[in-house]
Design a protein that fits this description.
Elements: E1 3-10, E2 26-28, E3 31-33, E4 42-43, E5 51-59, E6 64-71, E7 77-86, E8 89-92, E9 97-98, E10 103-109, E11 115-122
Parallel strand pairs: 1-3
Antiparallel strand pairs: 1-11, 2-3, 4-10, 5-8, 5-9, 5-11, 6-7, 6-10
Length: 126
């Protein structure tokens, strides 16, 4: 199974806002890491075929409410995962499929320290 992962890092005092991360990513093996910034949360895998979400790992900066949405090319959003009282880490699987021209959007509120999110998708859809 081939897995691709994107990681965003948010600076203390900022939130995941569903926007593209600033800066150029580094790519090592199948991990695409963006530098720490004040915005992020748009996970666009730019893929030509369906991908399956195999892991969502979010390290929160204090108590945070969060939502992960699937967004299609017309801007229609469908909530996949959410939480309201997480304080440290969420590490979960999600059996959703991301089609071509769709992306994932993570938003948070309430965080006070730096955060990190990694989302991994598999190229093998069963």
């Amino acid at each position: 199974m081939s897995v691709r992962t994107i990681e965003h890092k948010i600076a203390a005092g900022s939130q995941f806002n569903g926007l593209a991360a600033a800066g150029s990513p580094t790519l090592v093996d199948d991990l695409e890491t963006y530098p720490e910034g004040v915005s992020g949360g748009l996970f666009n895998f730019n893929h030509p075929s369906p991908l399956k979400i195999v892991q969502v790992a979010i390290k929160f900066g204090g108590q945070s409410a969060w939502t992960l949405n699937l967004v299609d090319r017309d801007g229609v959003e469908v909530e996949l995962l959410s939480g309201s009282t997480e304080t440290s880490l969420v590490d979960t699987a999600c059996n959703a499929i991301v089609l071509q021209d769709q992306y994932l959007k993570l938003t948070t509120t309430g965080a006070t320290t730096a955060m990190r999110a990694r989302i991994s998708l598999s190229r093998k859809v069963e």
